[in-house]
Each structure stands twice: as C-alpha cells, then as structure tokens.
Write a structure and sequence with these properties.
Length: 168
C-alpha cells in the first residue's frame, strides 16, 4: 500500500494511492463414512481439492475542494483483478482477469451554522469467496447438490445517499 496527499490552491487536496493484495486459498476436503463396525469408506461425492489465487491491484485518486458553503469530494478507483483456479480432483483449471472502474462523489452543503445537507454516490464491489468459485459438484444428500462457478464476477452495487444533519 502506498498513498500520497498533495495540497492544492483554494484549500483543495489531491490524494492518490495504490494497493496490492494477493490471496491464496485452498480447499482440500476428504469425505468418508464410518460404519458401526468401524470400517471407513471414502465418499467421492464429497472428496475434492481446489486451489484459488487472486491478485488485486487498485489505484485510486480523490480530489476535494470547498466552493463557499459547498464541499466536493470526487474520486475513482481502478481495479485490475487476476484469478487462477485449479480443481485438482476433476482437472478443471483456468484463469480470469478483469479491469473495473469504481467512481464516487460526495457533496456537502452548509445550510446554516448547525445544519448540513449531503449527497453521495458510490460504486462498490463484493468479490465471491473461493468456495463460490469451486466447480466441483458436491452431492451432500439425495436432494441437495452444490457447485460453484469459476467465472463468477464480483457483485456490483451502485449506492445513492442523501442526508440532513443538525449539530449544536
């Protein structure tokens, strides 16, 4: 992680930064059944080995400046995500990568000394967990089976907020 803040004229500020995260996760599941005599039987419908690696690069910039009673904070985050997966049990492997831009905007207006209006927009992401990416078909009962999707993309959320604040 690296960040830099640069003051600008008119009480403005520019912030830029970079963040890198690498996640390695594995699921090595062995399913077995022990009968009353103590004999152990392997359950192939539960046994699997899945490895998942995600590298995430994020660069961001925000700019903030007051204009009289109005303060503007605008930003953007560019994200480059690289994922690799290997379902060793079924020999399914692959990689995905994508680039996304996530903008944000926050406005704040001082109505009086005690009252403030605000409005915000943001674009957020929620990445899937490794287990949601595992393509192995797990049959846990005769009525229940699950399988992940290795091509699953993050869930995107666009958020709008507005507020009024009274402070003494």
């Amino acid at each position: 992680t690296a960040a830099y803040v640069h003051p600008l004229p008119d009480n403005a500020a520019l912030r830029i930064g970079y963040d890198y995260r690498r996640t390695e996760a594995g699921q090595d599941v062995v399913g077995f059944l022990t009968d009353p005599s103590g004999a152990i039987t392997g359950l192939p419908n539960l046994t699997n080995n899945f490895v998942f690696v995600e590298a995430n690069h994020q660069a961001y910039a925000t700019w903030q400046r007051p204009f009289g009673k109005l303060t503007v904070l605008a930003g953007a985050r560019v994200e480059w995500a690289q994922t690799e997966y290997d379902q060793k049990t079924t020999a399914i492997s692959g990689a995905n990568d994508y680039v996304d831009v996530h903008p944000s905007l926050h406005l704040q207006y001082a109505l009086t000394e005690h009252q403030t209006l605000s409005a915000s927009y943001s674009h957020r992401v929620d990445r899937p967990a490794g287990s949601q990416l595992n393509p192995f078909l797990i049959i846990s009962t005769e009525f229940s089976a699950t399988s992940g999707n290795p091509d699953l993309r993050p869930q995107e959320t666009h958020s709008l907020e507005a507020g009024w604040r009274w402070q003494e």
